[in-house]
What does this fold into?
Amino acid sequence: MERPPGYLVVGIESNPLQIDPRYSTDANSVRIGNLIYNSLLRADERSQLQPELAEQWRMIDDRTYVFDLRRGVSFHDGRPLTAADVKYTYESILDANSLSPKRSLLHPLQSIEQTGSHQLLFHLRAAHAPFVDQFTLGIVPARSPAFGNSNHEPPPGSGPFRLQALESGEKVTLAANPDYWEGRPQLAGVTFKVVPDALVRVLEFKHGAIDFMQNDLEPDMLPWLKENTAADVEMNQGTTFQYIGINMTHPILRHQKVRQAIACAIDRDSIIRHLLKNTVSDAGGLLSPLNWAYDPGAPRWPYDPERAKRLLDQAGFVDPDGDGPRPRFRLSFKTTNIDLRRRIAEALKEQLLRVGVELDLRSYEWGTFFADVKNGNFHLYSLAWVGIEDPDIYYQILHSTSVPPNGDNRGRYSDPEVDRLLARGRTTLDRTERKTIYRDIQRYLAEDLPNIPLWWWKNVVVKKPGLRGFVAYPDGELISLKRATLD
It folds into this structure.
């Protein structure tokens, strides 16, 4: 690949599926999109919301927000960014015909009132504590086509970089925005090079074809990188949560004791030490210790294969031949065809077989795998949640009304008590009260196990020494590249 002068080359594992911020849901699309699109607010490196396009903002009452926008901000095609563009962005997501996966997140929004060329009022139907997170949506120009399909050309943004070229499955090239309102980035541009094979990515880094990698690394390769290259390697605690997703409509998996048995059968410590080389930490649930609502008192399911066997017996799935070869039952387990993901799946298969549960491993390229997950076409799968800020994410992934396409309840979980607590959590504005509510939610889910916690990923950054000014974010954001320099 020919490298334009002054461009940083970032190696990524999978192809970004949809960069338009109204449709982006996979991590690479979101992270690349956040370099192209500005939002009203942006989380900083301490996960605190800060004004971006908003010059100032405030709550008038518990259902009304007022935003005054910065003046002098332009889209990459030269059009000035005004309140009309913000209003259009949100209303296009709310339009049912646009098929935006983020529509359900905006359901509390009753209307947007444009009160000036650079001022808006957001009116909510009722008090909704987590709605402030929705002010981090990327803003597109008014009248940008709203068609959520793979052929949809991303509209221009107003961010520090503009989209220069999009070659699906190969690379995404961004060029510095010379008219960026915060000042032109020092980097001439950023190329995101899609290299699915982790070994190839590392070799390309060694040979200078890649300058930067974050998290898309085989843990075994970190010592080799330190010994054989001049790489700067950093590791920081992150918030990305790896879990096993469960189809709660499955006749076997709908039994709570079966889910608990699977949790007990997994030797996380062994996988963390031997396969992951301590690049993760054992997780008890979705929220990491970096989250303000994290509850350290939620119960966990440490490795205990004998307990797993007893739970399976109690659920009515007795081992048909004791220590013989016949399993209690078989389940499919879906994952991507990335080598590390397959090896983790093989370790899980071996561990579950010890308690009489046989897994049929099925690996796919990313697009096919993710489509199956969204469509509910699975028994078990493993994925990660990234960018977790407000604990209301539980509503998006576990409330009974959040089944796709209305949300991300891909396992079709439904529990009246969880629904009740989640509804309270989003209508209570006092943070102390909300923390108590989410403590109860975490403890309830830790027993019921609609998904099985595995680990929280640490953010591992590998970069050439000449890259300066990059700051790692807990959620893996790359926005600090706008201030980075490359020698």
Notes: DSSP finds twelve helices and 19 strands in the chain. The mean pLDDT is 94. The longest helix spans residues 431-448. The CA atoms of residues 261 and 308 lie 4 Å apart.
